[in-house]
Design a protein that fits this description.
Layout: E1 17-23, E2 43-44, E3 48-49, H1 52-60, E4 65-70, H2 75-84, E5 94-98, E6 102-103, E7 106-107, H3 113-118, H4 121-124, E8 131-136, E9 139-141, H5 145-155, E10 159-166, E11 175-179, E12 185-190, H6 195-199, E13 209-219, H7 220-229, H8 235-246, E14 249-253, E15 258-260, H9 264-272, E16 301-302, E17 306-308, E18 311-312, E19 317-318, E20 322-324, E21 327-328, E22 333-334, E23 339-341, E24 344-345, E25 370-372, E26 374-376, E27 381-382, E28 387-388, E29 396-398, E30 403-405, E31 408-411, E32 416-417
Parallel strand pairs: 1-4, 1-8, 4-5, 10-14, 16-19, 17-20, 18-21, 19-22, 20-23, 21-24, 23-25, 24-26, 25-28, 26-31, 27-32
Antiparallel strand pairs: 2-3, 6-7, 8-13, 9-15, 10-13, 11-12, 29-30, 30-31
């Protein structure tokens, strides 16, 4: 990647750059994890929410303004942002949530990523902003956004697209581009399916393809003009190809970790990657931390449990026999004799007691259970002697209590599995 001599100067951009986090996604391919909340509100890494990743990247770049555009099942997301990101701890950064407005008593819903920005232009343009940084609310990365902004300033680009090399297997699901020796984008295609067309976008002397990360830096005037002239609803499908045709569009080359959390499979793999030394989001970088809501919980209590390649969250009480290659989220209780392998237990937002008769006496995983390759969502009660191993090797399955997606068992939030349940 070409080094940017203006990186030091990029800090001067902070007051005149606003991040726009697109957080209105319904997340149908992540269902049932999105059964009761939007995709950016889904848990990640045992103690974070997906929305924490783009907001933390913006905070680490010390941007003065961060706008979060929400829509679908957004109540919990609004609460999380309000409780987590207050101005004082974050050096005066203003985080503003924008949701669909009402007109004549009717909600004016967003019809796509670009449409959500278009319908909020009157709010976005009231600030003295020179650049708008468009971020997705459901991606994992830890990028030096100051370097990206310095590159955009150095090239004087109307649009800068953050890019990374991807394999032939991943290329058909992404927007691909060709660039010249100055990193100017010459051609772009969104999600090509024809192998002959795909081959035209192969990077010179490499087996990879240069793909858009869905992260964009627009000059203020360029974004406003594009949104008003092009009535398309989606950035990747409609507006980005149009802006590239206009010219003065550059590719910022990124080589670090990046993952789009679009499916149960990608969510499962990205979480479990944290438990080993495999490629994963770096949560231990003190210079670029990932922020979230402080929980003020005690350290976990673990009794006679064999633990291998796993993460155990705060506030847990663990009496299990074995936990292997698994992620156990906050406030999880696991009974004796239970074996958990290759699984994600998301945990709970609060402890439960018998005082609330509308809920089970405990959110817990019972005794002598066997759980393999599963995702157990929040506030579930798993009875004693429960077996979740997908014994029939099903790729897909649906019942009121259990789902299977790509061979991964998913227990929806709030599920109560009776004693001796087996799948």
């Amino acid at each position: 990647m070409r080094r940017n001599p203006l990186k030091g100067e990029s800090e001067q951009l902070n007051d005149r750059v606003a991040a726009i986090v697109l957080a209105g996604g319904e997340g149908t391919r992540l269902y049932p994890l999105t059964q009761s909340r939007c995709k950016p509100a889904v848990s990640f890494g045992g103690c974070y929410r997906l929305i924490d990743i783009p907001i933390s990247n913006a905070l680490n770049a010390r941007l003065r303004h961060v706008f979060v555009l929400t829509q679908y099942l957004a109540n919990f997301l609004h609460q999380h942002i309000a409780e987590t990101y207050r101005s004082d701890p974050y050096q005066g950064t203003v985080i503003e949530v924008l949701s669909p407005e009402e007109k004549d008593g009717q909600k004016i819903w967003y019809e796509g990523t670009a449409d959500s920005v278009r319908k909020n232009l009157k709010h976005l343009l009231q600030y003295p902003i020179d650049y708008f940084l468009i971020l997705s609310g459901d991606q994992l990365y830890n990028m030096d956004l100051l370097d990206l902004l310095a590159f955009a300033k150095q090239t004087d680009a109307d649009l800068t697209v953050a890019t990374l090399p991807v394999s032939k297997d991943d290329a058909p699901r992404m927007g691909l581009m060709q660039i010249d020796e100055h990193q100017r984008i010459c051609d772009f295609i969104e999600k090509p399916s024809d192998p002959k067309v795909l081959s035209q976008y192969k990077m010179p002397d490499e087996d990879n393809y240069l793909a858009s990360m869905g992260i964009y830096v627009f000059k203020r005037a360029a974004l406003e003009k594009l949104l008003l002239e092009n009535k398309g609803n989606d950035f990747g499908k409609d507006l980005i190809p149009d802006q590239i045709k206009k010219g003065n569009t550059y590719a910022y080359l990124y080589s670090g970790y990046w993952e789009d959390i679009g499916t149960i499979d990608s969510y499962y793999n990205a979480n479990l990657a944290l438990t080993t030394n495999s490629l994963a989001l770096d949560l231990y970088d003190e210079t670029n931390p990932i922020y979230s809501h402080p929980q003020h919980l005690p350290l976990p209590v673990i009794e006679k449990t064999q633990i291998t390649d796993s993460i155990i969250g705060q506030g847990c009480v663990i009496e299990a026999k074995e936990i292997t290659h698994s992620l156990i989220g906050l406030r999880t209780e696991i009974g004796s004799g239970t074996v958990i392998r290759d699984s994600i237990v998301i945990g709970n937002q609060f402890y439960q007691s018998a005082s609330n008769k509308d809920l089970p006496d405990h959110f817990k995983i019972g005794k002598n259970c066997r759980i393999e390759k599963a995702i157990i969502d929040e506030h579930c009660q798993i009875g004693d002697n429960v077996t979740l191993t997908n014994a029939k090797n099903l790729e897909s399955y649906d019942s009121d209590l259990v789902k299977i997606r790509n061979g991964i068992i998913v227990i929806p939030p709030g599920t109560i599995l009776p004693d001796n349940f087996s799948l």
